[in-house]
């Protein structure tokens, strides 16, 4: 049986926050410590989906 080493990742941001090179750094760091499964924690806020 394969072992799953998981981690929850995410933060509150605005549109485009996760499309930066800075946002990709934690993903690369997680692979260095053996994380092979990730649950993305996403939080939305605003009056409209377009915010």
How would you describe this structure to a colleague?
There is one protein chain. The chain is α+β, with helices and mostly antiparallel strands. 24% of the residues lie in helices and 16% in strands. A two-stranded parallel sheet has the order 1-2. It has one helix spanning 21-32; strands at 6-9, 37-40.
Task: Write a concise keyword list for the protein shown above.
51 residues, two-stranded parallel sheet, alpha+beta, 2 strands, single chain
Show the helix and strand layout.
Blueprint: E1 6-9, H1 21-32, E2 37-40
Parallel strand pairs: 1-2
For the secondary structure, the number of strands is 2
Number of contiguous helices: 1
In round numbers, the mean pLDDT is 78
Helix content: 10-25%
Low-confidence stretches: none
Encode the helix/strand succession as letters: EHE
In which order are the strands of the major sheet placed? 1-2
**What structural class is derived from the secondary structure elements?**
alpha+beta
If you compute it from the alpha carbons, what radius of gyration comes out, rounded to the nearest whole angstrom?
A: 14 Å
Any idea what the shape is?
Answer: elongated
What share of the residues does DSSP label as strand, in percent? 15-25%
How far apart the termini lie comes to 44 Å
Quick one: biggest sheet? 2 strands, parallel
């Amino acid at each position: 049986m394969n072992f799953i080493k998981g981690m929850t990742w995410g933060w509150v941001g605005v549109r485009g926050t996760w499309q930066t090179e800075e946002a990709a750094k934690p993903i690369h760091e997680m692979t260095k410590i053996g994380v092979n499964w990730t649950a993305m924690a996403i939080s939305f806020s605003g009056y409209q989906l377009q915010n």
